[in-house]
Amino acid sequence: MHSLGVKCNEFAFPSVFKACTLTNDFRLGKQVHGTVVVTGFENDEFVLNSMVVLYAKCGEIADSTRIFDAIPRRTVVSWNALLNCYVQRDSFGEAVELFQDMIVSQTQMYGEGVGVNQTTLSTVLKSIASLQASHICRQMHALSLKSGFEYNNYIVNGLVDAYGKCGQSEDASRVFKESQTSDLLAFTSMITVYSQDGQGEEALKLYLEMQSQGIKPDAFVYSSLFNACASLSAYEQAKQVHVQVLKLGFIIDIFAGNSLVNSYAKCGSIDDAERAFREIPERSIVSWSAMIGGMAQHGHGRLALQMFNEMLKEGVAPNHITLVSVLCACNHAGLVTDAKRYFSSMEELFSVQPMEEHYACMIDILGRAGKLDEAMELVNTMPYEANAAVWGALLGAARIHKNVDLGSKAAEMLINLEPEKSGTHILLANIYASAGMWDGVAKIRKVMKDSNVKKEPGMSWMEIKDKVHTFIVGDRSHPRGKEIYAKLEELSEPLRKAGYVPMVETDLHDVEEREKAKLLYHHSEKLAVAFGLIATPPGAPIRVKKNLRICLDCHTAIKLVSKIASREIIVRDINRFHHFRDGLCSCGDYW
DNA sequence: CTAGGGTTAG
Fold first, then answer.
1. Which of A60, A237, A428, A475 counts the highest number of beta carbons within 10 A?
2. Any strand B atom closer than 7 Å to A562 CB
3. pLDDT at A5 exceeding the cut of 60
4. A467 — phi, psi (to 5°)?
């Protein structure tokens, strides 16, 4: 047109720029920019706004901003284009800053809550979610209400996602419920929030609810569902969801595949995890890390290291998480020398600088192996302040190696760092008890009473078909309670013959000795195992999970039960898996 | 005239 000598007025340019933006034709756009200058329209705000959008879309943020800054009145679209530009390159902080300028400028120009639209809010919510900027969530929520976008699907989804990522799952759920949306993405976001918040039951319930409303899922939701199963340790559930994905004809992509590996591992079946792992077509570092970490948690240290070598052979570079898992694997297998080698060479070999987590892991390894001096040396020379993980590792080491001094020092630091946790007091009491320091035990009991620290009640679960059976110490409310207690009674004689002596001294309950022995014998994990023995077919593995660390007395007893009853018993406690088989445990009595 | 959801450790 221009080359034909036809005069072009300012009304044509925005449309031309728009066409260039839509077709991603940056080259033509630049040419037209030149024409704008030649024809003297470079001060027209409509022309300039359309140029901002063009340059932003092409990722030329400097040019875009330069033009943008020179426009006296910017359109919402220009602001949005620039905002989106920042989000595209993960500059979320800059996006939020730009938005704050935008609010000031647009409010001056148009009045409150008017100069932004749903695209603005949606883009900014995504930035807030990525930054986990919880303090701005509420403001954004208020602004959305004020602007009248409350029930817009994009905004609902954005708010759910942002509240969730900022750790405010209750607010996320309130927005979701009040919106009464039937949008697939909003459902997916809400399911993800629940699963990331450890509310696996809610996640699975919402998935059912979604289907009963006739909303068809897509492949996105499954990674979160598998995670929900993982957090519930619900093996049957994981299998059911897995089967359903296949039935619906969705391909298990890399995200869902990685979650599935993690889920099967966390549900106690490392074999299923490995099968799922082998079926992932293009395994990423996340897939490998999940598999290596799973094997480590199951106590298969050597296999985990083999897996790591296989990974290196395939040319996949480990990241900091992989290396935590590798160290963890060494820890479970008692491979101190290997751990030291990996730890000291990780920066040189894999360009991963040891972080706090790696130090904590290494300190745990040294401590468990009884090298308490070396562990302390590392604590004193590392470039970090010792955190709860480090003191926790030292406390655990002190318990295993019966070191009262280190134990009380570590416990003191831990109680300062996490005063609300009862586990620290309990562990220290165990250390005192095993050293025969009964006044120490009594003191802790008093401190716990005075400071109102409650021992978190121990609970164990067993999943049979799709029903979850819950047990707490001494509880007789289970429908098959009578049989469960009879089974334990029946086991007491063979247990005694096999050398089991109740460890009453480690129990902190304020009751008489005989009463203690009874409580001990009816710990939740023992009840769950007894139930497993009567409720599953002979020879079937028994899977139990517990909300705390498994107790020492139960660990001893269950080892013997696995032999007496010829059963594989798998207990997932808060830290790891214990595979009891033929009188032994996969953790090698280190936990 | 621009915009939304999923994966690994401790």
1. A428
2. no
3. no
4. -110, 135
